[in-house]
């Protein structure tokens, strides 16, 4: 089963974001550093096409620093794009954001041509935390400015750099199966939209491939190289006393333990996707979609042929 998660109201959000983007010079897209590609909202990519974009890989304190570096290089190599890593411990994040925005739009700046920036990100990525850190006494009420909704908060990152929040909620759209699991593991997907055991097993399988030492150390496991993911989950259940009467492991409870501990960062600094993996997952997802479309076409053709024969 793939994770299905695409709550409603996207059309309204799309319209609002499109309208908001008109007067914007730079889009800051907040991503979860543990799953940068999966936590991107494809709608933003489509709507902000051509706009200089700053990718902020937030929660870098939870992510694998070596993989964060790979992602930063990957994004920084894209035209019109800058990327930086961030986490909530940074006391003055505005300075680095401002410097990156200035680099992206060198022709703007100064009070005559202030740089207008929109910040967006899927829920739980840490947008409110960042905005709260940056506001302090810098909030300015918007006056009669073209394209700015009355009452909308304008945050001055510098005298000539204005930050606007995205109107409405931007949910992730799951287009790649692995991305769905990563979003679910990170906590960005509602509990009722996923099977926690399935998500925990996917997470364990990834950890076994990339972070076996951290997994082994956290749950005091012996050699796991010959085990299957569900066998590892059973061992976690045993180690943590998540058992039913009769000695049967409580896989649901064990799944919750693994997911919570991953989200809290106590298993280690972990990133669930690398740029090359992501590229391969996208390719696979596209091939699968093309295959499904071809199968559908073939079914329609077969149906039409039968119908015509019967005439
Ligand atoms: P949002 O506006 O994008 O929806 O996200 P928000 O700022 O509410 O942050 C979501 C959760 O992520 C919060 O935890 C917040 O503390 C945490 N968070 C934000 N930035 C960082 C970061 O850089 N590193 C880490 N480790 N965590 C971060 P919460 O458990 O939902 O709430 P609370 O613990 O703050 O009460």
TrEMBL record:
Cellular component aspect of the GO annotation: cytoplasm
CDD domains membership: YlqF
Keyword Cytoplasm: yes
Domain CP-type G: 11-172
Binding annotation for GTP: 58-61, 124-129, 168
Cross-referenced Gene3D superfamilies: 1.10.1580.10, P-loop containing nucleotide triphosphate hydrolases
Domain of life: Bacteria
PANTHER family attached to this UniProt entry: MITOCHONDRIAL RIBOSOME-ASSOCIATED GTPASE 1 (PTHR45782:SF4)
Function per UniProt: Required for a late step of 50S ribosomal subunit assembly. Has GTPase activity.
Family: Belongs to the TRAFAC class YlqF/YawG GTPase family. MTG1 subfamily.
Name of the protein in question: Ribosome biogenesis GTPase A
Species for this entry: Crenobacter intestini
Organism classification: Bacteria, Pseudomonadati, Pseudomonadota, Betaproteobacteria, Neisseriales
Record gene name: ylqF
